[in-house]
Amino acid sequence: MQRLFHDTVLLGNKKILLHHNKTQNLVVARHYNIAPKSALWENSSAMVADKIRGIPSKRCFHQDTTTEHTNQLRSLKSTIPRMGQGIQVGQHAFLERTFSNEDVEQFSTLALDFNPLHSSLDWEQIMVAQDDSSWDIHQRNGLIQFQESNPRVTKPVVHGMLVSSIFSSMFATLSPGCIYISQSLDFRRPVFVGDTVAGRITVDRIRKWRKGGVLVQCTTKVTTQPRGETTDFGLQPEEMHSSEHVFVKGVANVWLPSGFVAQKP
């Protein structure tokens, strides 16, 4: 057995990630070489099949969704019909999300991304120990923010891919069983732990697909609103967020297997 990091262990040909669940006070071992026909695989596949059919599934192989995350997902607002059945160009959706320290720690562990920017660091120790000017460059370019409760400790930067996962959660909620075909991402500004951001998707193009259903092209953005600005969801995104700050921008192509274009009156 060889220990590489504090939470990663190599045991024979098995790679095990140890994750401490503070809520349940237990350690979960996730094996990354699960056989395709294992009980875990079959159970998870059955859960997905139930979800696609709209059947409440009683199966459970891993339940770590916190109440906080569930409540955030319930804030999803959309003019896009469920399953894309009657979808039209111009329809859009909006979801607010606040990323916590635990979110960033768990993502770092799963992605094996231990970049120190994603951790809380003591700035004085950094300045004493640094052997190059990279941290000064980070600070000048807005990649360093300090905690309000402790102004010498930095706020972790949320991974760009974790921020962008808001798009996947929106599509999966609006159309369970949808398939991502492609997603471009342009990271414009950093998001820090504790920041509340808004994921927005807007339908730009729709076409029937040979495999069934429709292929939808959407503009995807993660933004924030200036403090004090109210949201009128009846307005188009460009109209109601002219002064928004854009953190991530891109284009997604998503297959909606049971979707269809709204019939013209």
UniProtKB/TrEMBL annotation:
<dbReference type="GO" id="GO:0005739">
    <property type="term" value="C:mitochondrion"/>
</dbReference>
<dbReference type="GO" id="GO:0006633">
    <property type="term" value="P:fatty acid biosynthetic process"/>
</dbReference>
<dbReference type="InterPro" id="IPR050965">
    <property type="entry name" value="UPF0336/Enoyl-CoA_hydratase"/>
</dbReference>
<dbReference type="InterPro" id="IPR002539">
    <property type="entry name" value="MaoC-like_dom"/>
</dbReference>
<dbReference type="Pfam" id="PF01575">
    <property type="entry name" value="MaoC_dehydratas"/>
</dbReference>
<dbReference type="GO" id="GO:0019171">
    <property type="term" value="F:(3R)-hydroxyacyl-[acyl-carrier-protein] dehydratase activity"/>
</dbReference>
<feature type="domain" description="MaoC-like">
    <location>
        <begin position="152"/>
        <end position="224"/>
    </location>
</feature>
<protein>
    <submittedName>
        <fullName>MaoC domain containing protein dehydratase</fullName>
    </submittedName>
</protein>
